[in-house]
C-alpha cells in the first residue's frame, strides 16, 4: 500500500495473551464476544497510510498490505504502547485526587482519572493516599490484529469528503473544484462549532498533502430564518 493512500480498514484487536477482544469495527465480532454497543454505529476505520496516526507496528504492517486481503498478526509492546514503566505509577494525597474529579462518589479502583492534565487509572486509595497508574492501559500488552483493507479511496472528491469526515465527523459538505482550487460549502451548524476554527488550519495542510489541492475556500451560507405565521 502506497504512503498517503486513504483507506478504509475493518479490524479486530485482541490481547494476544488472553485472546480477549479489545476493540472492533465489525458489529458481528462485537456480538460474538457479547460486547456490542447499541449506541454505536460500526463502520471501518478511515486512515492515511504512513500518516503516523496508528501505533508503529500497525503502521508498518499496513504499508506492506494489499486491499481485500485478510491479515492476522501480532505486535509486541515496543511497537505498540510500550512496556510498562514503574516510574509512571505515582502516589498522591487523597485530597489532591478528590479535588481533581467532578464527582468523588464515582471513584473506584480502576476508575479513569485526570490529575494536572495527565490521564491515569486509580489503582489504590486508603489512609489518605491514592496510587495512580499513568501508563497507557495497553502498555506491556502484546496485541493481535485481524484486519482487511476494504476500500482504497481513489476519486478526488471522495478523498476530500473522506478527509472531512475524518477531521470533523461530518460528510455533508458541498464540494466544487476549479482546476486544483477547492471550494467547500459548509453545513450552517459548522459556523457555531468552536472546534472548527482550529480544525480547518490543519485540514488545509492535509488536503494539500493528500489531494493536491491549490487554493482552499470555505464557504458559509446562512439561510434566512422562517417565521411561521400564527393561525
Model description:
The chain is an alpha+beta fold. The protein contains five helices and twelve strands. It has helices at residues 27-32, 56-63, 94-100, 156-168, 196-210; strands at 6-15, 20-24, 45-48, 70-75, 89-93, 112-115, 118-126, 129-133, 143-152, 174-178, 181-186, 216-220. Strands 1, 2, 3, 4 and 9 form a five-stranded antiparallel β-sheet that branches. Strands 5-8-7-6 form a four-stranded antiparallel β-sheet. The longest helix is centred in the C-terminal third of the chain and has 15 residues, at 196-210. It is globular. The model has no long low-confidence stretch (mean pLDDT 92).
Helix content estimate: 10-25%
Give the count of structural domains.
Answer: 3
The total strand number stands at 12
Order of secondary-structure elements: EEHEHEEHEEEEHEEHE
Assembly classification: single chain
CATH classification, class level of the largest domain = Alpha Beta
- What is the 3D shape? globular
The largest pleated sheet is described as: 5 strands, antiparallel
Alpha carbon gap, first and last residue: 63 Å
- Average predicted local confidence, pLDDT: 92
Low-confidence stretches: none
Number of alpha- plus pi-helical segments: 5
Content-based structural category:
alpha+beta
Using only CA atoms, what is the Rg? 22 Å
Amino acid at each position: 500500500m502506497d504512503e498517503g493512500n486513504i483507506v478504509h480498514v475493518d479490524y479486530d484487536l485482541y490481547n494476544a495473551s488472553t485472546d480477549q477482544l479489545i476493540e472492533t469495527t465489525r458489529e458481528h465480532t462485537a456480538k460474538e464476544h457479547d460486547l456490542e454497543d447499541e449506541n454505536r454505529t460500526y463502520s471501518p476505520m478511515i486512515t492515511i497510510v504512513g500518516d503516523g496516526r496508528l501505533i508503529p507496528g500497525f503502521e508498518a504492517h499496513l504499508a506492506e498490505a494489499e486491499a481485500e486481503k485478510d491479515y492476522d498478526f501480532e505486535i509486541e509492546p515496543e511497537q505498540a504502547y510500550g512496556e510498562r514503566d514503574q516510574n509512571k505509577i505515582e502516589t498522591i494525597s487523597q485530597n489532591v485526587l478528590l479535588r481533581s474529579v467532578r464527582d468523588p462518589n464515582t471513584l473506584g479502583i480502576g476508575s479513569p482519572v485526570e490529575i494536572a492534565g495527565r490521564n491515569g487509572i486509580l489503582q489504590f486509595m486508603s489512609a489518605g493516599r491514592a496510587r495512580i497508574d499513568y501508563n497507557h492501559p495497553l502498555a506491556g500488552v502484546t496485541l493481535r490484529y485481524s484486519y482487511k483493507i476494504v476500500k482504497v479511496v481513489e476519486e478526488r472528491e471522495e478523498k476530500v469528503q473522506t478527509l472531512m469526515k475524518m477531521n470533523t465527523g461530518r460528510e455533508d459538505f458541498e464540494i466544487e473544484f476549479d482546476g486544483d482550487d477547492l471550494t467547500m460549502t459548509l453545513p450552517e451548524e459548522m459556523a457555531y462549532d468552536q472546534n472548527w476554527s482550529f480544525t480547518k488550519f490543519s485540514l488545509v495542510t492535509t488536503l494539500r498533502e493528500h489531494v493536491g489541492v491549490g487554493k482552499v475556500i470555505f464557504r458559509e451560507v446562512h439561510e434566512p430564518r422562517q417565521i411561521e405565521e400564527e393561525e
